[in-house]
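Let's do one together. I've listed all components of the complex below, 592 residues spread over two lines.
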Amino acid sequence: MYALVDCNNFYVSCERVFNPILQKKPVVVLSNNDGCIIARSNEAKSLGIPMGAPMFKYKDLLLENNVMVYSSNYTLYGDMSSRVMNCLKNFTPEVEVYSIDEAFLCLKGLNKNFLFKEMQKIKNDVYQWTGIPVSIGIASTKTLAKLANCIAKKHTREGVYIISNDSKELENILKKTKVEDIWGISKRWGARLHNISIFTGFQLKNSDPRQIKQCLSVVGEKIVRELNGVPCIPLEFIQPRKSIMVSRSFGSMISDFDNLKEAISNHVVVAASKLRSQSSLCNSICVFIQTNRFHIKEPQYKNSKEILFSEPMQNTFRLLKASDQALKLIYRSKFKYHKAGVILSQLVTKTNYQINNEMVNTTREEKFGIQPDLFSNTLNNRKKQNRGDRFIDLIDEINSKLGKGSITYGAQGIQKKSKKAKDLRSNWQMKSYHRSPSYTTRWNELLKVS
Amino acid sequence: MKLIKDILKIKIKNKSYQQFYSCAVTAGFPSPADDYLEDKLDLNEYLIKRPAATFFVRVAGDSMINAGIHNDDIIIVDRSIKPRHGKIVVVALDGQMTVKRLYRRDKKVVLLPENRLFKPIEILDSMEMVIWGVATSVIHFL
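Okay, and this is what the predicted structure of the assembly comes out as:
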């Protein structure tokens, strides 16, 4: 059996843990740059605020109803998420962290009643330990567990729901479920299924898997089998990412090169530290910039430039240099830029690369019978490079001990620290006027009690 | 600048821990202590039993001073512990966070301060109290 554990209104719940006054009040959390509403408490949902609603459209409604508004605080949500996941790992090691607020568990050989009680215990314990309420859906496959979770969240008081395999109940549920609401079926796939007269989950369950394979792909076929209670999608465990992208839209439009460079440099620093934290090296960096395509009257421009490296690297200084080169090639003045980002790609793991590299170098030396330091990758060069990497490690360590941004690279620009920091911040920085403290990761922002 | 030097020192020290042997094996006689290396003492491990349920909380005020909790101290709060009678707890009282000793006898619940200048708070039905967690230790700089 599989269980899907899903945190209820996760971002809002995180805010509520540290600010109990928010209990039972309408609360919303905004996306990066305070643009859209991306999380709503049940109270806010019943006010008719839709998911993804643009903030400016709903400002009045929010004010009228005293809705508490928060900027997203991913530092806090990330920490709370890892706490919830660790809680789950205490019950079973077979946990797939599916997203920041969802995890699949694999459960073996338990009868239904026992399972129900056990899941309720998990739910209660997660709440007790972390303060985060969760709902749990259980079924014989991941696809059905996802469905069970929706029911647990919407239609049960306990927040736990089990779908048994061959029951009439499953039939009823699937009859009421649109195909595009089934896990793994996108809107595009939904439209294709409509073409062959499949509209409900029940119809999909009873369709011919071979036909679905033709219509969608082997993945579609797997979904049909999963709906019939045959597990086809096993738990997946985390693999290092193949590329890393960091991009943001700006707080306000930017035209000048220096500001743009500052923004991009900051993205490079973040991306590079992600790269190092997963012990990878990258073979290329891509920089992209674009204007706001919604401002139709403004002149539009977007472009990107990828720079390939002669050997994989993770050194922030060298990545910064490359990003600067790339930006110079694509920057055009007289445009108002809205968004910029960097992508590090063709990642390889550091250990893999080192092993291969050693082999290549030794064979080279043997083959040519000459000293290795005649090559471009000389010992001296390598030593220098190692020293550079050690220096970066040191910066990483200082920043992790004293807080992000304790030491910054020159290209990132000078941070403006003042009481009116909000007004003096660089143009490119995100708007986040309603951010809660990072209660669990910064000594000077801990929860206060009297 | 001094800070950076200190960190450099830490870094260098850490480096020496990472090397498994306390002296290089190739040169001379290996240290007789090498076979007896143990892990360094880790305060996290000592103070925190369940990391997923443990939070650091900053105290404001002197209401718990006789329990050794001073203004600006950090208390370590474990949410997984059952809040029994006599424990020091962090509670949300009508939405306000406070730390007090929990008195729970004869159907009566009282939050007791550890300072004569403060009054005990008896919990009435009209109040909303949620116990947030149990304090397990306090970090106080001398």
